[in-house]
Structure formats: C-alpha cells, structure tokens
Specification:
binds flavin-adenine dinucleotide, 22 strands, binds adenosine monophosphate, FAD/NAD(P)-binding domain, 12 helices, seven-stranded mixed sheet, alpha/beta, about 475 residues
C-alpha cells in the first residue's frame, strides 16, 4: 500500500523546501524527498544553495574579503598587523560548519511544520504517484493529490575540459581546494566564475578568466559592467574576453598536476597552463530519470520543465518550480515560486512578479540590479530620466574607505515611475533591495526622494540617485539626465 499525502515535493533546495514548509503551514500533509548525501553520507536538505551554492560560496567570499582587507586596507585605517596568513583547510572547515548549521536548520523546520523528510531518489510515475528509491535500493510508492517538482540544476560540462574534480573542477570542486592554487584558470565570466575567481584571487592566486563572449556581463547595464571590469581588473583578475576554450591536456604528477588549456581569441590559437581550472559555464535543469514518460510532463528545447506563470505543468496535479523551470537560476526566484505554488494549492491567488527578480554578483564591490537597464529602455523606445550617484560623494562610504562604484536609478521620463536600479558598490545587494520594495509599490523617483534616509548610511546614495533622476541631488552636480 502506498503512503498517502496531500502534497509530495521532489527536491529540498530553496524552491522545494519553501514549498514544503508553506504546504505544512497551510495544513497539507506533506512529504519532501531528497537524495543529497553530504561528505559523511548523511541526507542533507537545502539543495545546491545551502550545500554547494549560495551559502558556501558566500562563506568563502566573506573569509577571503577579510583576508584581503587585512592585507590591503587595514594600514589605511592605521591598523598594524605584523603577519597575515591564510589557513585554507580552516577556512573550508568553517564553510562546512556554516553549511551544516543551515542544512540542519531546514531539517528542524521540516519537523516544526510536520513535513516528512524522505531520503532517496524520487521519480514521478503518475499524475498522483511518486516512487522513492532509497540509497540501499528499496522502493516505496507515495501517492499525492499534488506533486511539486523542485529537482533543481547541475553544472554544465563542456567537452574540451572534462571535470575530474581534482585539477579541472566545477563550482562544487572550487569550494573544496585545500591550498591556494598558484595559477588558476576560470572558464566563464558569469556570476559564479567571477565570485569563485575572486575568492582565490584575494587569497593570492593568479587568476585568468577565459570568456567566449566579447562583451563583459552582457545582462548588466553597460555603464555598471564597464565599471565592474575596471575594478575587477585592478583587483588582479585577468579577464580575457572573446577567448573560447577549445581543449585541455592534463600534465604533471602528484601535487604538481596541472592543465594546459587551449583557447582561441582574436589573435588565433593560444595556450595557458594552470594548477587548477574551474569550469563555470552555466547550469542546466536536472531531470535525469525524474519523470516517467507516461506521465506526459513536457520539457522545452533546453530541457526545462514547461510551466505557466503559476508554475503549473501540462499535468493538472503537478507543479514545478526553481531552477528546473524557465527563468533566472536564482535561489530567491525558486523560493517565491515554491511559496506561490503552495498557496495556490490552498486556493490563494498568489503570484510571482517576474518583472522584479533582483540579481546580484557577490564580488567586492557587489554588483546588483533590478528592472530595466538603459540599453533595454533604449531598445524599447521608452524615455527615461537617469540619476547616478557615485559612492565617492557618500560620507559613510568614505568613512569606511570603501567608495568604489555608484547607484544608478532610472525613472520613466513621463510618469517618474522607477523602472530600474543598478548598483556597483559595497552592500550593493542590500541597497538595490530597497528599490525593489519601492518598485513593488510602483513608487516614483520622487517618492524615494521624499523619503527620509538615516545619515550617515550607504543608503543615502539611493536617496541621492532618486533626487538626481529629477535633477536635484544635493551632493553632486546635476547635468544631462533625460534620455
Ligand atoms: P537546487 O538547489 O538545485 O535543489 C534541488 C534539490 O533536488 C537537490 O537537493 C537535489 O539533490 C534534489 N533532487 C533532484 N532530483 C531529485 C530526485 N529525483 N529525488 C530526490 N531529490 C532530488 N543563487 C542565488 O540566488 N544567490 C547566490 O548567491 C547564488 N550563488 C550560487 C553559487 C554557486 C556556486 C552556485 C552553484 C549556485 C548559486 N546560486 C545562487 C544558484 C542557486 O543555488 C540555485 O538557483 C538554487 O539552489 C536553485 O534552487 P532549486 O530548489 O530550484 O534547486
Ligand atoms: P553563466 O551562464 O552566467 O554562469 O556564465 C557562463 C559563461 O561561460 C558565459 O558567459 C559563456 O559565454 C561562457 N562560456 C561558455 N562556454 C565557454 C567556452 N568554451 N570558453 C569560454 N567561455 C565559455
């Protein structure tokens, strides 16, 4: 006899665990199936984000940032330290502790919300049935009124650089280095490549980033991307654009292993030798052996499960959310989708506002954006006012000796409604988030301009950018704004 549930969730990443917890809160009898085993072979919840994604990468970014500050910034503040060193295994150990604390936290939340966490691999075998295969091969059928698929994504592999997780690694392997590589290659100047490249560059690696495209961060506002390229280059990242990796050859022995990477750029065929190589060329939806074809769930041409704006699949009782469906592969997008699905099962009218999915690159300075950028507005023929405020004119940024970057706010020239916000700077993600809230409430630049901001804060740069959009920032000249 199969166990019966109102809702069975497949996958406990941010999309799945949010869906499961909200279902539990709403009174549904809920199970969440997870196959992930940690280094100690124990089931862990939280998926990519908690185990090998957002959280561990930020743990290493935070450690390496402190190290870099101790090296390059303390002296400016008059702080004398005689010798700064890095104990890489200790850094990795701390990261593992943070991961452990958070994944255990999800297990605790499951208990608190009466969600049954079930260990094993789930396969959707019918409109209302999921078969779970445990790690010792035992099978159990669960029946459910509704199924939520949140199976997530995995790194993309490219044939020229097969990952061995030793010399050629993916993002997961790049979180486990036990020493700082002398020369590190990174394929892909996307968010993950830049974040992981920054970690190891701050700790002393010579980092070369090979990016096939000619444009740097093409999804980012051009002015902000240009500033980012300038700052990252100054920090020591050697970013080679228009460099397509075509092959690789492993060499050396024991601890002296290396890899020769072949790539082509505008000057022809090139070679570079690295001690480690990170392949960070994107992620793909994970649907291997997940769906019995008889169920009739459709995939799109790129392998994502096809869903509508409410995350409903082509089968009425089955929903899918997070990285396994269309849209940006971001934890918070999956979280909101998971909550939306749970609430719609409870007959609420919840929606996700896909126009306001914020994006962040957690380098230092951070790069963060939401809404439309200048290039998109020009292409759409929308007239806009621009307010740009540099952190060098912000008292708090100067006090912290952290004044690279700017806040750029874009408002509709006719209605003054905020259309986008693009920030490069310290705490850019948190600053941009204030504008996400404003935009969710359809605020105008004037609304933000009339809001009182605490002094002295970095947030005042958001205030000033909003004032600048209407030509009356206080701490900068106001010229040339309507476009
Ligand atoms: P996942 O987190 O991938 O979880 C899916 C889960 O389903 C996994 O635990 C998997 O084991 C399980 N599963 C799959 N198939 C089955 C099955 N058949 N049976 C049982 N279980 C199954 N995003 C951000 O928003 N901010 C960041 O800072 C950020 N940093 C990142 C850094 C790195 C290095 C990486 C790799 C990613 C980062 N991301 C970040 C992306 C983020 O991790 C993903 O967008 C997010 O984890 C997707 O959530 P999800 O729930 O859809 O899938
Ligand atoms: P993202 O999808 O944002 O994680 O970025 C991945 C990046 O990897 C993209 O900018 C791709 O252009 C880049 N990329 C993919 N394949 C190659 C390759 N063979 N050589 C260099 N860069 C690549």
């Amino acid at each position: 006899m199969s166990k019966e549930y109102d809702v069975v969730v497949v996958g406990s990443g941010p999309a799945g665990y949010h869906a499961a917890i909200r279902c539990g809160q709403l009174g549904f009898k809920t199970a969440c199936i997870e196959k992930w085993l940690n280094k100690e072979d124990k089931t862990v919840y939280g998926g990519t984000c908690l185990n090998v994604g957002c959280i561990p990468s930020k743990a290493l970014l935070d450690t390496s940032h402190k190290y870099a500050e101790a090296h390059h910034d303390f002296e400016t503040h008059g702080i004398k330290v005689s010798k700064v060193g890095i104990d890489v295994p200790a850094m990795i150990g701390r990261k593992d502790q943070v991961v452990k604390q958070l994944t255990q936290g999800v297990a605790g939340l499951f208990t608190a919300n009466k969600v049954d966490g079930i260990t094993g691999t789930g396969k959707v075998t019918g409109a209302n049935s999921v078969v779970v295969t445990s790690h010792d091969g035992k099978q159990e059928e669960l029946s459910a009124k509704h199924i939520i698929i949140a199976a997530g994504s995995v790194p993309i592999d490219i044939p020229p650089t097969p990952v061995d997780q030793e010399t050629i690694v993916d993002s997961t392997g790049a979180l486990e280095f036990q020493e700082v590589p002398k020369r590190l290659g990174v394929i892909g100047a996307g968010v993950i490549g830049l974040e992981l490249g920054s970690v190891w560059a701050r700790l002393g690696a010579e980092v070369v980033v090979l990016e096939a495209m000619d444009d740097f961060l093409p999804a980012v506002d051009r002015q902000i991307a240009k500033e980012a390229a300038k700052i990252f280059t100054k920090q020591g990242l050697d970013i080679k654009l228009g460099a397509r990796v075509t092959g690789s050859k492993l060499g050396g022995k024991g601890t002296k292993k290396n890899v020769v990477v072949e790539y082509t750029d505008s000057d022809g065929d090139q070679k570079a030798t690295f001690d480690k190589l990170i392949v960070a060329v994107g992620r793909k939806p994970y649907t291997v052996d997940l769906l019995d074809p008889s169920v009739g769930i459709e995939l799109d041409e790129r392998g994502f499960i096809k869903v509508n704006d409410q995350c409903a699949t082509s089968v009425p009782s089955i929903y899918a959310c997070g990285d396994v469906v269309r849209g940006p592969m971001l934890a918070h997008k999956g979280m909101e989708e998971g909550v939306m699905v749970a609430e719609r099962l409870a007959d609420k009218k919840t929606q996700v506002n896909y126009d306001l999915v914020p994006s962040v690159i957690y380098t230092h300075p951070e790069v963060a954006w939401v809404g439309k950028n200048e290039e998109e507005l020009k292409a759409e023929g929308i007239e806009y006012n621009l307010g740009v405020f540099p952190f060098v004119a912000n008292g708090r940024a100067l006090a912290a000796n952290d004044s690279d970057g700017m806040v750029k706010l874009i408002a509709d020239a006719n209605t003054d409604r905020i259309l986008g916000c693009h920030v490069i700077g310290a705490s850019a993600a948190d600053l941009m988030q204030q504008v996400v809230i404003a935009m969710e409430f359809s605020a105008s630049a004037e609304d933000l301009g009339l809001t009182m901001f605490s002094h002295p804060t970095l947030s005042e740069a958001v205030h000033e950018a909003a004032l600048a959009a209407n030509g009356h920032a206080i701490h900068i000249g106001n010229r040339r704004r309507r476009k």
